[in-house]
Write a structure and sequence with these properties.
There is one protein chain. This protein has a five-stranded parallel β-sheet. It is of the alpha/beta class. The chain folds into two domains: 19-273, 3-Layer(aba) Sandwich (Rossmann fold); 277-477, N-(1-d-carboxylethyl)-l-norvaline Dehydrogenase, domain 2. Helices cover 45% and strands 10% of the residues. Helix 15 packs across helix 19 and helix 17 (432-440) crosses helix 19. The protein has helices spanning 33-37, 39-50, 66-71, 108-112, 143-149, 157-171, 187-202, 226-236, 277-300, 306-311, 313-327, 339-350, 359-363, 366-383, 389-403, 420-427, 432-440, 443-446, 453-477, and strands at residues 24-29, 56-60, 78-82, 91-93, 96-100, 119-122, 177-180, 215-218, 244-246, 251-255, 271-273.
Amino acid sequence: MTRLGLDHHGDLPAPIPDPRAVTVGQVHLGLGAFHRAHQAVYTADAMVRSGENHWGIAAFTQRSGRAARRLAPQGGVYTVVEKGPDAQPARLIGSVREALDGSGDADVIARLCDPAVRVVTLTVTEKGYRHDPVTRQLALDSPDIAADLAGRAPHTVPAILATALARRSALGNAPLTVISCDNLPENGRLLHRLVAQYADAAGLTLDDAHRFPSTVVDRIVPATTDADIAALERAHGAHDAAPVLCEPFRQWVIENDFAGPVPAWSAAGASYVDDATPWELMKLRVLNASHSILAYVGLRSGHRRISDAVADPTLEQICRRFIDEDVAPVVDAPTGVTVSEYGDQVLRRFANRALPHTTLQVAADGSQKIGPRLLDTVRDGATGGRRAHWAVLGIAAWALHVVDPIDADGTPTVLDDPRAGDLVACVAGLATPQAVRRLLSDTRFVGDLADDTDFVDTAVAYATALHRGGIAALASEVSL
């Protein structure tokens, strides 16, 4: 079978614009499936609508070179396959003009200093920011940050950006717009702070003209399997080693704070706003938080996929009560939207059985996610004199996953978390209830809530019930 490429694409229409007519104007860090299903699609559509073909993407992998090795032989071209109601036909995307291994010898700094580059986007996941998720400050004690500060070629995102921005200014090149596309509160302001903290520690000078707008990104993009690749090959007559599957829905909200020109993303459906905070809070506290609840409780209920978990009446009720009773009272939705309506839309999207999004996949990296998704809702509820019981339940299920990580079959599995060493050490040698109590009484993981006795006691009770008797025992404990 012919390999997908610039001249070979089976019965799929050729990508528009023609990739061979596109030059690089932006760099992306974190060449994964989400970027290829989201920002790269917006950029392709923006170039088509504006006629500006100088916004091609030089995309760098971060943790491994696997995606680059798959894309490079295809000239950066790949297929986007929408799944579910209202899905559009499969299409080829040609906006990624360079697919490079950022974990190897690829010179990310040099590409970032190219005068033709005006925009940087990032999808490096929460752990890629090398910050303490509780204090939201740069983790200067991280071995990788320390190694960068000791003089090795920059490896971490804060080091790469600080070094490149300082060098770019020294060369007299135009400032960059640096756009975080990861699920973190005030992601632009957070990234700016971390880069500035690294620069201070490294003795680098940063130009205030560089801009870091905050954003909200949304599209469900499950991992692509070998079976997906084989099915696509049979359907279209070309072998694509790097396709992406996704839902039809997509959203991109960007603060209108740019250092210079950017692609015509608004013409492709992105929304430019003065303040992304209302959109960000609603997505983090409703969509991302519900995702986590479904993952952690769903694993204990034997649900392999998110769509299976949300189809469970008990789990669906937990999510709806979490949204209506815990989140809606403390989050101000953007104008024209209500939290409950948004929650209904989210749960319908999660129910899309055409998307094989697994509970175990969503459960990964929990220590980086529970703060903005669940702990902050508990804190905001307490400020208003309310106990966010459903958010506490989600935190309890996360803690149980740390103490006793299992897959959907109930088989023990390795905890997938960047702080796994600290988490496992915290609970080592303790029985489940005591381990959960120790974990949730540690300020390193839950911040000031570690001193809230009612929070800890309630979470321990929920985790114990879930561990002892699964969803039935939990339902009894929370009076569903």
